[in-house]
Every structure is written in C-alpha cells, then in structure tokens.
Amino acid sequence: MREGTAELEKVNAALKAEIAERLSAEHNLHRLNRLYRVLSETNQAIIRASDRDTLFNDICRIVVGHGGFRMAWVGLVDDESGLVKPVTWRGANNGYLDEIRISAREEPQCLGPTGTAIREGHISVCNDMLNDPRFLPWHKHAHKHGFLSSAAIGLKLNFKAIGSLTIYGDEENLFSPELIELLKQMAMDISFALENLDRQKTLREKDQLLIQQSRQAAMGEMIGNIAHQWRQPLNALSLIMQTLPVVQEMGELTREYLVSMEKQAMQLILHMSQTIDDFRNYFRPDKEKIPFSVREAVSRTMTLIEDGFRYLEIDVKIDAADNPIIIGYPNEYSQALLNILSNARDALSERRVSNPRITINMRTENGTAVVTVADNAGGISEKIMDRIFEPYFTTKGTNKGTGVGLFMSKSIIEKNMGGKLTVRNTGNGAEFRIEV
C-alpha cells in the first residue's frame, strides 16, 4: 500500500512538473510573440519617423503597449556631465526617473544595466533587481515601483554610444536568452534608424545652406538689377532738379512749367517705387500652389532684368505659341527662370558674342507647359554637360559665381513642382527646357 502511494505521489509530482514546464514554456512563448509584435511595430515606427524624438517616443509606447512591459524610457548622455538624461518614457514612471541618478561614466554608484549598456555598447540585463548587487543603489526605488527585472539596450550613432533604451518587467527572470536575442535585433534596427535620421538631417541642413546661398546670390543679382532699373530715372530726376535754377535765372519759370516738371518727376518716382514692389514680390515666399500664367511669369521675370540685358545689348525675343497655365509656385518658378536667364547672360557677356541673343519660347505639349530658353553663346562643353546642375559647380570662378543657381532651378522645377529641367546644345548655343 505504501509502495503504491509513493509511486502515485511520484507520478503526481512528475505530472505537476510537466504541467509547470508546459505553462512556463507557454508563458515564455507568449512573451516571445509579444516581443515579435514589438519588433514589427518598431520597424513600422522606423519607417514613419521623421525625427529622433518621434522615434524614441513611438518605441517606448510600443514596448509598453504591445510588449506588456511595466515601463520603458530612453535616456541620452550629456557630454559635459556624463549623466544619462531621460528624453521620453512610457508606463509606470510615477517619479522613478526623478529619484535615480545614472551616469555613463564608470562610477561606483553607476554600474547598473543602463550605464553598463552605454559604456560597453551592448545589452545589459538584470533578472533580479531586488537582489542583484549591481542594482543595490536602486533596490528601494525598484521595489517601490514594482520593477523586478530590467534590460538596457545601448543606443549607437555612427559607432558612438549616445544613450540607452531601458525596459522594466514586473516578474523575475523575465529576459530569457531567446528574448535577449530579439532585443539584440531590436538594438540593430534602432541603430540603423538613428544613422538614417542623422543622414537625413545632414542632407536637410545642406539643402538649407544651398537655399540660403542661392537666395544671397539672387539678392546680389537683384541689387544689380535695381541699380540698372533706377539709373535712368535717377539721371532724369537729377536733370529736372538742375534745370529748375537755370530756367528761373532766365525768367521763364512759369507755373505751367513747374506743373509739367512736377508731373515728370512724379512719374519717375512712381516707376522707381513700382520697381521696389516688383522685387519685393519676387522675394516673397509662396505658401501654397496656385494656378498662374506662364506668359505672365516670363514677363514679370523679364521686367526685373531687362535693363541689365539692354545695357549689354542682348536681344531677347519672346515667342508665345499660347499661354500655358501651371499649378504651382509662381515666385519659385520665376526664380528658376531668372537663374537660367542670368546664366545665359553671363555666357554671352564672357564670350563677347557679337549680336548676342536669347530666345524664350513657350507652348503647351500634350497638356504640359513647356518653356525653352536658348542663347547663341556657343553651347556647353560636353565634358561638363552632366555636371552643370550639381551644387557648387561653376565655370565662372570663385569671384563670379557660387554654383548654386542652376542646382536650385532644377530643385525648384523637379522637387517642388514635379516638373523636369534639362539642357542640350543646339547649333548656336545652349537650350534649357522647363516642363511642368
């Protein structure tokens, strides 16, 4: 009887152990499945994120919401103090991050998972926060907030540790070897995202620099054009002022004569005022796409620069087969056109072309507005044809050009307005073709 009972207890114990093992396996599988969901959602967040803060916030939200962890936070290292400063968190914080001090430097009080992960550049795990001696400085705070295990993922940017993602669970031995492997995959994905965002930021900064340089170059161009526009009316006003004393000495300064001179002077002043308005409107940024006439855009651009072209005796012929309408940014379109015309003017001037000429042709082709700008300056060397739209590429020398004008024209037409800007050599010179 005793032998039977002992055997039954043995079987029963084995059965309980098997059930416990199965439950543990199911529980672990459930945790793995949740972390797989976290990985999937994290990758989606990486695709959507436009900046680092958004990415960090989304990751903490996903870890807590889909992973079932008690809390997640991201801390970045302050280069001056070495302290890890929280930038975002989700879950049961309740002042926890205000109570603890974590440093990326190897200090006696800063040897926990977060500091270790940052210093060593890998995942650091503590599966028993209340008893692990490494976590001694934070035992009280962990117990208060119900944290029993943690894992810290070192965050890298261009192979340099910049911070960590720290995750807390409410059970011991939460981070199994399988779970740690998934966290390693997550760490690689986040590092890839940070490097990609950093590259995008660098490109945006370069674009902003190019835009600023282009605007400065255009401003210099406009100041020169204003000088040409104002030179003639200023000379006329000067002549009027010099004539008045002479006429008075001759005794011919009648009221009718004064009224006539006043009328002429006011017309000149109004013309100069209109010139300022034209240039001010040109530099006003477009806020939204609107329909505009190509013919009016060409005419407005020519108004800004015609005196300078006339001074160089450049003949400009405009041939409008029709009047295409574009939905886009009229000021930006005019800027692109102005850059092309200025480039043609410089080529004609530098090469001292006899009978210099620019032909602007506008028409509609298969529903697309097409404008071509052709000159008779001899064309572009085939050696540099593929490079003229590159930023900072110029053949004018450092004192005469920045090399951003044609680059910005292409960016405006193709990136901002979804069109196409190309160039080719004709028999006499270069022809730029704008399609929108």
CATH architecture level-2 label of the largest domain: 2-Layer Sandwich
CATH fold descriptor of the largest domain: Beta-Lactamase
Total individual domains: 2
Percentage of β-strand residues = 15-25%
The CATH homology group name of the largest domain: GAF domain
Distinct helical segment count: 10
Fraction in helix: 40-55%
Low-confidence stretches: 398-402
> What strand line-up does the widest sheet have?
2-1-5-4-3
Please supply descriptive tags for the structure shown above.
single chain, 436 residues, alpha+beta, Beta-Lactamase, Heat Shock Protein 90, five-stranded antiparallel sheet, five-stranded mixed sheet, elongated
Walk me through what this model shows.
This protein is an alpha+beta fold and 436 residues long. The chain has two domains: 2-201, GAF domain (Beta-Lactamase), CATH 3.30.450.40; 285-435, Heat Shock Protein 90, CATH 3.30.565.10. Helix content is 53%, strand content 19%. It contains ten helices and twelve strands. The chain has helices spanning 2-48, 52-65, 96-99, 113-120, 139-145, 177-249, 255-283, 294-311, 330-350, 405-416; strands at 71-77, 84-91, 123-126, 149-157, 160-169, 290-293, 315-320, 325-328, 357-365, 368-375, 420-425, 430-435. 31% of the residues are buried. The model is unreliable at 398-402 (pLDDT under 50).
